[in-house]
Automatic annotation (TrEMBL):
<keyword id="KW-1003">Cell membrane</keyword>
<comment type="similarity">
    <text>Belongs to the ABC transporter superfamily.</text>
</comment>
<keyword id="KW-0067">ATP-binding</keyword>
<dbReference type="GO" id="GO:0005524">
    <property type="term" value="F:ATP binding"/>
</dbReference>
<keyword id="KW-0547">Nucleotide-binding</keyword>
<dbReference type="InterPro" id="IPR017871">
    <property type="entry name" value="ABC_transporter-like_CS"/>
</dbReference>
<dbReference type="InterPro" id="IPR041701">
    <property type="entry name" value="MetN_ABC"/>
</dbReference>
<dbReference type="InterPro" id="IPR003593">
    <property type="entry name" value="AAA+_ATPase"/>
</dbReference>
<dbReference type="InterPro" id="IPR045865">
    <property type="entry name" value="ACT-like_dom_sf"/>
</dbReference>
<dbReference type="InterPro" id="IPR027417">
    <property type="entry name" value="P-loop_NTPase"/>
</dbReference>
<protein>
    <submittedName>
        <fullName>Methionine import ATP-binding protein MetN 2</fullName>
    </submittedName>
</protein>
<dbReference type="InterPro" id="IPR050086">
    <property type="entry name" value="MetN_ABC_transporter-like"/>
</dbReference>
<dbReference type="Pfam" id="PF09383">
    <property type="entry name" value="NIL"/>
</dbReference>
<dbReference type="Pfam" id="PF00005">
    <property type="entry name" value="ABC_tran"/>
</dbReference>
<dbReference type="InterPro" id="IPR018449">
    <property type="entry name" value="NIL_domain"/>
</dbReference>
<dbReference type="InterPro" id="IPR003439">
    <property type="entry name" value="ABC_transporter-like_ATP-bd"/>
</dbReference>
<keyword id="KW-0813">Transport</keyword>
Length: 351
């Protein structure tokens, strides 16, 4: 329980639900056949959060994301953004609400015959702003995404990362509350991916924009998301704080994604090979840097050896995971485990 308490303490802040999806389902019809792309999805995204949805190809990620701004109309269910129920709005009202929701895409979807400046100005023209106001706003946006020197270029003259920066500037033009990202970095190399992810974090922190992103890369989730939902065959199979999902994945699909970025050695292979008791220790937050293990064994005759370990940071929060072998008498081993748990460590017994 100790570790759960720590996790909730880390994210303690006032919670306002900005996106509320209740029982969303979407069936596509092709001829007489109906394909249910997503089924009974319930999902809430809090204001100020970066929320990630991960799933394999065809899992229903894009369908789900497109239901949030009603680019796709769910067959059943309710979609609320900022308290407004979108499914019952008139076309005019929906158009107004959509200004509060920006969106970026894997293949950028830029106007190829328009310059960077014109691409970014496009939604401002639709919102009927004056020419002077548009130019001023576009200059601000160019600066925000670092493209001031490229304003008069055409998309074909830009790198993938620069094209996505144009997409981001265009999505932010009308000062939305929410940014939806559909595989925004999947067409980019790892270094460019990281620079776009850093820009998204910057936008989230400086402008307070809530971000809902979909991806099939666990690296993206680990780098920038606060919470994650894992979607498989149209259903949410696991959801929670990223740190928790990483350290204790429960569903097979989640395990699959976590192993994309984790050490591939499974210490359970040592069960029966090593004679001592094997335990997995999870540390989160300040506990990570405390000499808890040393203190737990020092008054006993227990020896320990580390079989696997990582100490790292996730979104600035330290965490550690060690697999250790405790060597000594059964009663002393039990005592050490009790002390570790008493200190707030999550202790899993592998043998
Ligand atoms: N317009 C459509 N008409 C019919 N079926 C569709 C349509 N769009 C999606 N589907 C089907 O719905 C399911 C979910 O598709 P979706 O595009 O949401 O998946 P995804 O998780 O975004 O996949 P990817 O990672 O490949 O982008 C798939 O079986 C797909 O074939
Ligand atoms: Mg998709």
């Amino acid at each position: 329980m100790g570790i759960l308490l720590k996790w909730s303490a880390i994210t303690q802040q006032e919670v306002i639900q900005l996106i509320e999806l209740v029982n969303i389902s979407k069936a596509y019809r092709s001829g007489s056949v109906s394909v249910e792309a997503i089924r009974n999805i319930n999902l809430t995204v809090n204001k100020g959060e970066i929320f990630g949805i991960i799933g394999h190809s065809g899992a229903g990620k894009s369908t789900l994301l497109r239901c949030v701004n009603l680019l796709e109309r769910p067959t059943t269910g309710s979609v609320k953004v900022g308290g407004a129920e979108l499914t019952t709005l008139s076309p005019g009202q929906l158009q107004n609400q959509r200004r509060r929701i920006g969106m970026i895409f894997q293949h950028f979807n830029l106007l190829s015959l328009a310059t960077v400046r014109e691409n970014i100005a496009f939604p401002l023209r639709l919102a009927k702003l004056g020419k002077k106001e548009i130019n001023h706003r576009v200059d601000e946006l160019l600066q925000l995404v670092g493209l001031t020197d490229h304003a008069d270029k055409y998309p074909s003259q830009l790198s993938g990362g620069q094209k996505q920066r144009v997409g981001i500037a265009r999505a932010l033009a009308n000062n939305p509350d929410v940014l939806l990202c559909d595989e925004a970095t999947s067409a980019l190399d790892p270094q460019t991916t990281n620079s776009i992810l850093a820009l998204l974090v910057d936008i989230n922190q400086k402008l307070g924009i809530t971000i809902l992103l979909i991806t099939h890369e666990m690296h993206v989730i680990r780098s920038i998301c606060d919470r994650v939902a894992v979607i498989d065959q149209g259903e949410v199979v696991e959801m929670g704080e990223v740190l928790k999902v990483f350290l204790k994945p429960e569903h097979a699909v989640t395990l699959d994604f976590v192993s994309q970025v984790a050490d591939s050695f499974d210490p359970r292979e040592l069960v029966g090979v090593r004679k001592g008791k094997l335990v997995r220790l999870n540390y989160v937050g300040d506990l990570t840097y405390e000499p808890i293990l040393y203190n737990a064994v020092k008054a006993t005759s227990i020896q320990f050896t580390i079989l696997q370990g990582i100490v790292s940071r996730m979104k600035g929060t330290p965490y550690g995971q060690l697999v250790i072998e405790l060597i000594g008498s059964g009663s002393e081993v039990d005592k050490v485990i009790a002390v570790l748990r008493g200190e707030g460590l999550d202790v899993g017994e592998l043998t």
